């Protein structure tokens, strides 16, 4: 097997497909709306359909990864992604774009699920949290680069070229994964692909209290990020009236908070447990969200204050997500593929709902975005408190 650094780079490239697909075309929303004779709120539904595709697709890939190993389903997914990216570039209506984005997400799932399963295969809980932090850093770099790059591509050549770039990137990642993961495989030919057996396996994972507690905590906490992603084009391009290039820069500045936190998380793990880090970071995220909601309700919001609060919100998420992911997979040694898929599906399902609600409730204020971010952080904090107590009670000797 290749060195740890090379492995993380490969896994990072696989996990970054999703964020690139989300972030890179955001600055082009205005151009897409004008070209397809619609408005930005309709174009934002293509973002929601992508989240739905990620949720559905991961449930499909989980059993396939158990039966056929991590690589073959991943390769097929990347090919589906490349083909769907081409159809997105050729879309002639917003309805077609929404549908093609769904299939693009189905393709992206292969790399997302496989990378998390490989991490669970190879590392223990503390090491998993550290590796997930490094993967989170790779993922967090994409919002720094992707919107800026997407904004310049859309301004210079048109939004369709953004999807052309995504097609090329996916084929490059496929080539790299094929050669660099050549020595790794884990498959179980005895794993049944019958619907009843798959359903029983997923049900057994869902009934694991440790898994469901941290999977849902991570899902609701990260759903605030999707609420921000869905609402940010309207917030910055329409309400604050900045340009597509400026939007890309603002998006990148905010993402720095996520990158910084993922690096600090690895150092924090030397002194504190993952459980404690998740609790403290969630409390901080909820406090920031309340300030953001208060700011939106006041009617005196401004670009710099809003951006600073969102920066702090994502900074907290940088501590929550890697630790919650590691803790949710901790007890899933023999069903890592299915557990990884189910965890990702829960995250995307909650994220898709938050994203869609922001679009539906959108008005001439940032209230729908800020309210959803506060709701997601609050639900995550309540779930963690109640769930931790129940697990603690259940684990006490009688």
Automatic annotation (TrEMBL):
Domain (Major facilitator superfamily (MFS) profile) ranges: 5-389
Molecular-function GO term, any one: xenobiotic transmembrane transporter activity
Lipid bilayer topology: Multi-pass membrane protein
Subcellular compartments: Cell membrane
Organism domain of life: Bacteria
CDD domains: MFS_MdfA_MDR_like (cd17320)
GO CC annotations, alphabetized: plasma membrane
The keyword Transmembrane helix appears for this protein: yes
Transmembrane segments: 43-62, 74-92, 98-119, 131-155, 161-181, 202-227, 247-265, 277-297, 303-321, 341-361, 367-386
Pfam families linked to this entry: MFS_1
Record keywords: Cell membrane, Membrane, Transmembrane, Transmembrane helix, Transport
Name this protein carries in UniProt: Bcr/CflA family drug resistance efflux transporter
Organism listed in the record: Neolewinella marina
Biological classification of the source: Bacteria, Pseudomonadati, Bacteroidota, Saprospiria, Saprospirales
């Amino acid at each position: 097997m290749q060195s740890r650094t090379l492995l993380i780079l490969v896994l990072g490239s696989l996990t970054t497909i999703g964020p690139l697909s989300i972030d890179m075309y955001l600055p082009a929303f205005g151009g897409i709306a004008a070209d397809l004779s619609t408005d930005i709120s309709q174009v934002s539904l293509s973002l929601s359909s992508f989240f739905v595709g990620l949720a559905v697709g991961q449930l499909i890939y989980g059993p396939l990864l158990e039966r056929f190993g991590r690589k073959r389903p991943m390769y097929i997914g990347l090919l589906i992604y490349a083909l769907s990216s081409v159809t997105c570039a050729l879309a002639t209506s917003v309805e077609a774009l929404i549908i093609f984005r769904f299939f693009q997400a189905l393709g992206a799932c292969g790399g997302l699920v496989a990378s998390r399963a490989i991490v669970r295969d190879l590392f223990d809980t503390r090491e998993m949290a550290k590796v997930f932090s490094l993967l989170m850093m790779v993922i967090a770099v994409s919002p720094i680069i992707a919107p800026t790059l997407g904004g310049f591509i859309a301004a210079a050549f048109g939004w369709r070229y953004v999807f052309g770039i995504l097609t090329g990137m996916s084929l490059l990642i496929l080539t790299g994964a094929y050669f660099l993961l050549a020595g790794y495989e884990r498959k179980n030919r005895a794993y049944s692909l019958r619907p009843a057996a798959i359903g029983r396996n997923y049900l057994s994972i869902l009934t694991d209290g440790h898994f469901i507690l941290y999977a849902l905590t991570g899902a609701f906490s990260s759903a605030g990020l999707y609420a921000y992603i869905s609402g940010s084009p309207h917030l910055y391009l329409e309400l604050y009236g900045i340009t597509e290039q400026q939007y890309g820069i603002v998006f990148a500045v905010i993402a720095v908070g996520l990158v910084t936190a993922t690096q600090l998380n690895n150092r924090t793990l030397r002194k504190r447990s993952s459980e404690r880090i998740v609790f403290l970071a969630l409390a901080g995220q909820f406090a920031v969200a309340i300030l953001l909601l208060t700011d939106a309700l006041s009617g005196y919001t401004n670009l710099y204050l809003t951006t600073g609060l969102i920066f702090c919100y994502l900074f907290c998420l940088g501590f929550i997500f890697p630790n919650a992911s590691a803790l949710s997979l901790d007890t899933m040694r023999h069903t890592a593929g299915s557990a990884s898929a189910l965890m990702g599906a829960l995250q995307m399902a909650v994220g898709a709902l938050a994203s869609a609600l922001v679009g539906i409730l959108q008005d001439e204020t940032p209230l729908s975005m800020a309210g959803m971010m506060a709701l997601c952080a609050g639900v995550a904090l309540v779930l963690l408190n109640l769930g931790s107590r129940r697990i603690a009670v259940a684990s006490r000797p009688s």
